[in-house]
Amino acid sequence: MPVARPESSDSRVIAHVDMDCFYVQVEQRKQPHLRGQPTAVVQYNSWRGGGLIAVGYEARKDGVKRSMRGDEAKKVCPQIHLITVPVARGKADLNIYRNAGSEVVSILSRKGRCERASIDEVYLDLTDAAEKLLKETPPESLESIHEEVLKSHVLGLNSNGDDNHKEIVKKWLQNKNGDPRDKLLACGALIVAELRLQVLQETQFTCSAGIAHNKMLAKLASGMNKPAQQTVVPFSSVKELLELLPIKKMKQLGGKLGSSLQVDLGVNTVGDLLKYSEEKLQDLYGVNTGTWLWNTARGMNGEEVEERLLPKSHASGKTFRGPSALKTLSSVENWLKELCEELSERLQTDLETNKRIAHTLTLHADAYKTTDTDSHKKFPSKSCPLRYGAGKLLEDAVNLFQCGLREYMNPMGNQSCGWKITNLSVTASKIIAIPSGTSSITKYFHSQDPGEKSDLLSPLNDSYQSELKMEFGGEQGTITHDESETSFDRIDLSSGHESCSTSNQNELQPKLSTKVTNINHPNNIRSNSHKRKPTKEKGKTSSILRFLQTNSSQRGQTSSVMEGGSLTKSQNRQTTNTWDYNLDEIDQSVVEELPREIREELYALLPRKKANMVKRGSSIAHYFSPK
Ligand code: DCP
């Protein structure tokens, strides 16, 4: 459901930049002889020439559409070049497109806050840059203005197709007496045109853009004039724009909410919503959505451009249409292996290149039952804390799948009917940067909740269930820790993913219940620590936990002891640091489960001991789990 955010200011300058027929452009750069030729990119599939996923503008002129299969496109446009998406591990390999998207982002982020919204689109907050330009070199002071700016479409100017289009736009850009907000948008248009030219020069890609006072309007505008053009939405043109905009075209209104507005209220355009008071909309759709609708009808949207140059999540998925649908657990496992290997590679690259770590693994599937009475039932998405390494990802993904399957097949009911999987994906989300620097070990294990240290050492354990709030890059999730033999922590994510809940555990196979507790995830470490008896357990687990809870100043004390060759030290409880664990005994494989940066730091602390590590357990969880 949409969330209403107050409009922070109506004089922000926000741009939405969207690449034109992106995959086609990437392929055309690779094979320049395809430039100017009708071209489309198909996802390989032997059925009717594969599905088109990107269509170049030359082919669009001939009537080729994304909804077509390759064979159909050839009929409509016999000279079309169909390029197949690269394949790796039996599925589409999108790395070439992702990397091309990153090239563009690095250019677009030069002028202001930049949010990578998808593989080929970004939002920019250019308010500061526009204000600076307006102050230092306002458009009216410019003797000449670049063609690319003059080609802009300014909504409300009614100059499209006019021979004097550029003259009219120039006048608008240089209007000394114009609305101050328009002057800022004019500066935004100059900046965006310059950025688009830089993208073209440096990557050979064209893009289109919308420039407005908020994200919603900028996004609407970027698609209005494609390819290689930009559209400006002055404040005064918003009402007219929304009056005629079909309700389903508005972001977040393409689905059920938009249908309800059409069917239940007879609302056909966004402007039609103006008839309803905020109270009425709140009555009908709840306070948040009601306010959001009321704002949307007026073109108001307070959503901020988030600083994010890297993707918010990594997903690896595959569709299995028709006879290729998966029917057995072993075929699902085989595919999950491929998907997890790909995901693991991407996570590793992200970790090494960007020092980011993902926290949540989610499994999504589409399924249907072979003899079905409730075919509408969706396969539930399941999540758990994410463990690094392809093998562990696979283990957890398989467990999540089994957990989802049990629920999907209705554990209370008839198990005899079969199932088929038509889509399978694994997603790594809640990605946050690992703090760097000498205290990174401590920060790594504490990054979610700086105020938690004292809790960990206090007898919180009395509580059988504790709820901890975590913040990940602005999003919130709640983890419920249960004292029972829990296999999965239940995570209620704002993304709406369902997750494996502890209540399912009795239904799960024993395999599941042992595996998922062994998760080397900070949250699990924390969760486990809650279950410790505070005074009696003096084993390895408690002390390594304390090591990881030690803050940087306290680490200063411990390191002197480490330099002396022994890592055994006791301190009184008031200082919350106790070194009663001999790191010599850490199993090498345990250390290897840590992210590389943390691992290297540990090695640096123990240069002479590394070779002597004694095998004690199979998993880092051995040290971090309560028993
Ligand atoms: N894409 C895909 N599957 C889809 C839709 C899109 O794989 N069902 C890929 C191919 C596109 C890229 O994502 O090139 C970006 O999608 P867009 O919707 O932005 O479309 P294009 O960039 O291809 O064209 P346009 O110029 O209309 O934005």
From TrEMBL:
Gene3D superfamilies found in the cross-reference section: 3.30.70.270, 3.40.1170.60, 5' to 3' exonuclease, C-terminal subdomain, DNA polymerase, Y-family, little finger domain
Q: Which residues form the signal peptide?
A: none
InterPro entries, sorted = DNA/RNA_pol_sf, DNA_pol_Y-fam_lit_finger_sf, DNA_pol_Y-fam_little_finger, DNA_polymerase_eta, Rev_trsase/Diguanyl_cyclase, UmuC
Question: Segment Disordered: which positions?
Answer: 493-573
Q: Cite a single GO MF annotation.
A: metal ion binding
Q: Please cite one Gene Ontology biological process associated with this protein.
A: error-prone translesion synthesis
Subcellular location field: Nucleus
> What chemistry does it catalyse, as a reaction equation?
DNA(n) + a 2'-deoxyribonucleoside 5'-triphosphate = DNA(n+1) + diphosphate
What is the name attached to this protein's record? Answer: DNA polymerase eta
